[in-house]
Write a structure and sequence with these properties.
By secondary structure, the chain is an alpha/beta fold. It folds into two domains: about 170 residues, 3-Layer(aba) Sandwich (Rossmann fold), CATH 3.40.50.360; about 35 residues, no CATH class. It is built from six helices and six strands, in the order βαβαββαβαβαα. The structure holds flavin mononucleotide (FMN).
Length: about 210
C-alpha cells in the first residue's frame, strides 16, 4: 500500500506542505511526500502525443512523477488558493493527467484521493478544483481538509500600509500586524486532527481492498 502526497505550493514548508504531510502522518503504511516547488512542470500542449500509449512526450519533471503517480494506491493533493482558484503550478500538474485518459486508459482510475486546500481567506475554492480533477480522473475523493495560511502581506514589509493587500482587505485600514492576527496552522489544531483522521481513514480504506 502506497500513499503519495503532493503539495502544489511554491512556498516550501508552508501551510499546504504541512497539511498534506499531516494527512500522510495519519496513514498507517508506506507514504511519500513530494513538493512541486522548483519542479519544471509545463502545461499540457494538447499535442495528442500521448494518445497511442498514454505517456506524455513533454520532457520535464512530470516524467519522473508519472511513475510515482501510477505506482501509488492513493493521492493526497494539496493546493493554495491563488486568485480564487488553485494555483497555476498545481493546474499544470493536473493538466498533464491528460496522458492517462486516452482509449479508456485505466492506470489511475479507481485510486483513492484526499483534497487539501489552503488560502488566506477561502481555502474551500482549491478544494473544489481538486475534487473536480479527482472526478475527471475517476479517483474517489474520500474527504477534504482546509486551513488558513498567512498571505505574503504579513511578511512583505508593507502589509500595514498597502491598501491593495490582504491586511487592509481583511481587517481594515490602520491594522497592526501582530502574532494574534497572523494565520498559523499551529493555531488550528482541529485542522491538524482532521487531517490525521483523514489519513487514518484513507489507510483503513486501502487495507480493506
Ligand atoms: C498570487 C497569490 C494570490 C492569492 N490569492 C488569494 C485569493 O484569491 N484568496 C485567498 O484567500 N488567498 C489568496 N492568496 C493567499 C494564499 O492562498 C495564502 O498565502 C496561502 O497560505 C498560500 O499557501 P502556502 O502557505 O502553503 O504557500 C494568494 C497568494 C498569492 C501568492
Amino acid at each position: 500500500m502506497k500513499v503519495l502526497g503532493i503539495s502544489g505550493s511554491p512556498r516550501q514548508g508552508q501551510t499546504t506542505d504541512i497539511l498534506v504531510q499531516e494527512v500522510l502522518n495519519g496513514v498507517e503504511g508506506d507514504t511519500e511526500f513530494i513538493s512541486l516547488s522548483g519542479k519544471r512542470i509545463g502545461s499540457c500542449l494538447g499535442c495528442l502525443g500521448c494518445v497511442k500509449d498514454n505517456v506524455c512526450k513533454i520532457k520535464d519533471d512530470m516524467s519522473e512523477l508519472r511513475q510515482k503517480i501510477v505506482a501509488a494506491d492513493a493521492l493526497v493533493i494539496g493546493a493554495p488558493n491563488y486568485y480564487g482558484m488553485l494555483n497555476s503550478l498545481s493546474h499544470c500538474f493536473w493538466e498533464r493527467f491528460y496522458q492517462f485518459r486516452h482509449r479508456e486508459g485505466d492506470e489511475i482510475a479507481g485510486k483513492l484521493g484526499v483534497a487539501v486546500g489552503v488560502a488566506g481567506r477561502t481555502p474551500d475554492l482549491p478544494v473544489r478544483d481538486i475534487e473536480n480533477f479527482f472526478t475527471y480522473n475517476k479517483i474517489e475523493c474520500i474527504g477534504a481538509v482546509t486551513a488558513v495560511g498567512p498571505a505574503s502581506c504579513f511578511t512583505c514589509g508593507h502589509g500595514e500600509t498597502c491598501r491593495a493587500g490582504s491586511i487592509h482587505m481583511t481587517f481594515g485600514p490602520g491594522t497592526k500586524i501582530t502574532k494574534a492576527i497572523t494565520p498559523d496552522l499551529a493555531k488550528q489544531q482541529e485542522k491538524i486532527a482532521q487531517a490525521r483522521a483523514l489519513g487514518r481513514e484513507l489507510g483503513n480504506r486501502l487495507l480493506m481492498r
